């Protein structure tokens, strides 16, 4: 039976809709924070009917978990690439400095920085998001362990997270040179 016969509009084939919704969720979180993220706003940004949200996701928590998983995966991939490119300890230190000063805190990283901070805060109360952060931290530590012993890798990972949070929340964030000095001083 055709759409004309039934009186219904034809269904639009949109295989990328779920991905667009996840990307839209990230955009909304970056702009409004987790507290300001709603099904309606995500659907508006994705330019899809509101019903698409409940068709593709059982809850807003599911959307947030998938969105933050995507964010963490992208950030971890950059981390892996930086650490893989390092051929020795000195290059690994430089890779960590570049990761923090340029990739995480540098120009153009505003949305990623906000997403990271929003994830940390939301993970404190949401077990699914806590699992996302734990997986991200484990992957970061594995990347660091390519160049540093496990204890140093764990501590360096915590230092990186602290530098990111400090820079995001400080009225006087550290400069790239101060970040370099802090990391190099720790690793001596």
What structural class is derived from the secondary structure elements?
A: mainly alpha
Q: In percent terms, what proportion of residues is strand?
A: under 5%
The H-and-E topology, N to C, reads as HHHHHHHHHH
Radius of gyration: 20 Å
Tell me the helix content.
over 70%
What's the pLDDT, averaged over the residues?
A: 89
Count, helices: 10
The low-pLDDT segments are none
Indicate the topology.
Elements lengths: L2 H4 L10 H16 L6 H8 L4 H6 L3 H26 L3 H16 L5 H14 L3 H18 L5 H20 L6 H12 L1
Helix pairs in contact: 2-3, 2-5, 2-7, 5-6, 5-7, 5-8, 6-10, 7-8, 8-9, 9-10
Task: Explain how this protein is built.
The structure is a single chain. By secondary structure, this protein is mainly alpha-helical. It has ten helices and no strands. It has helices at 3-6, 17-32, 39-46, 51-56, 60-85, 89-104, 110-123, 127-144, 150-169, 176-187. Helix 5 (60-85) crosses helix 7 (110-123). The termini are far apart. The model has no long low-confidence stretch (mean pLDDT 89).
Features:
10 helices; mainly alpha; 188 residues; elongated
């Amino acid at each position: 039976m055709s759409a004309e016969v039934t009186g219904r509009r034809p269904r639009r084939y949109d295989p990328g809709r779920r991905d667009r919704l996840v990307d839209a969720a990230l955009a909304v979180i970056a702009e409004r924070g987790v507290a300001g993220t709603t099904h309606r706003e995500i659907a508006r940004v994705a330019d899809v009917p509101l019903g698409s949200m409940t068709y593709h996701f059982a809850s807003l928590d599911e959307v947030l978990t998938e969105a933050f998983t995507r964010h963490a995966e992208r950030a971890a991939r950059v981390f892996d690439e930086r650490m893989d490119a390092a051929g020795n300890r000195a290059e690994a230190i430089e890779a960590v400095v570049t990761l923090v000063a340029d990739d995480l805190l540098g120009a153009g990283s505003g949305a990623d920085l906000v997403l990271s901070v929003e994830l940390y805060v939301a993970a404190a109360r949401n077990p699914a998001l806590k699992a996302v952060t734990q997986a991200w931290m484990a992957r970061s530590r594995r990347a660091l362990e390519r160049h540093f012993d496990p204890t140093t890798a764990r501590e360096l990972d915590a230092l990186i997270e602290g530098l990111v949070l400090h820079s995001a929340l400080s009225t006087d964030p550290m400069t790239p040179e101060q970040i370099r000095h802090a990391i190099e001083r720790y690793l001596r």
